[in-house]
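subagent[fold] <- orchestrator: predict structure for attached chain, return tokens only, no commentary.
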Amino acid sequence: MSKVQWRPYVNALTKPRSYGARVMPKETIDYAGMARIISEKNPLWSADLVESILRAWDEELLNQLLQGNQVSFENTLTYHLSLAVRLDSVDQPLPTDKSFVKVMAFPARDFVERVRQQVEFERLPPTEKAPVLAGAEDTVWNLDNVLNPQGLLRLTGTDLLFDPHKQGEQCLITGTRSGSTIQSRFGPVSNTEVLVMPDVPPQDDPWNNEYRVSITTHYTEHGSPRTGAFARPLRTPLTLTNFSHPNPPEHGILTGSAAAPNVTVTGGSLSANSTVRVEVMQDLQQEELVFRLLDMNEGGAAGAALAVTHNGDFVLSGFAGSPLTSLNLTVNDYTGLWEMIRTDYGGRLVDILQITTA
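subagent[fold] -> orchestrator:
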């Protein structure tokens, strides 16, 4: 029996550094490929016939879900719809924006056990030597994964040493929507740590505050260039102005490379200039996003949690001692925010907000 191939990788979200194991698929099987495999094992069935049945199965699965049915194949998977919505009253209708509708698929326990009993693994050798960036920290706020134009970025890892004055060796900061800048201002550079005074390239819109950082180096005089990138995006602080105005300008936050913001700040109550953090945690069990305001210290003061399951207007409460007592938010793209947090941020997204009265 063929073995499942896997390879270790650095988990950049943990301190001290740890490693995960990633399955390396040999290929992707599509309709035609699965039909061919089934046909070869069952010669009386043509590949065309099998593919047509597979596609008809998909259409009927969709039809049954739309009729409100659960589809359960006892030995493999169960499919059903789930509504990730929070209602304020028993007679409140469902939102017109159907982003709260989720399609759920769960493997049967017996199926999982059969896989576990039969699977065999093959460990692949490590990839070729390259810079491994395991951590990125702003040294002003002492916060991870923050790119502060007024601060100093500390990159940690292994095999990081490079010469910024040598052709083809560089530290590069790239916006996920637009812009990139080769860095030129450094503190000490070693195999395990690089200090950068970041030159942050502007992006198309102010809410595009998401960046990637990478290092390229050579390990031998005539060797090929090797590049390593930090796995997690870095985020720059966002400035929110004119909060003392009765109708302050709107500011996009909590967004990646999108041309429109996932979330917009529309106002709030602020007695003096303040720097805070806004956090969004992904609750997979409840299928909701939980928003909170935080101070600038990990594990410090926090406002009340607010669970959100759909687009709409919401108010976040401040925390004790903060000049910001409330923050008005509009969630414009709940689905896009959910997917971004799940895919790129390991279930937790934080933006720094520098808020001024004028």
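orchestrator: received. Logging for downstream: Residues 238-355 form one domain. The chain has four domains: 29-66, 70-123, 132-235, 238-355.
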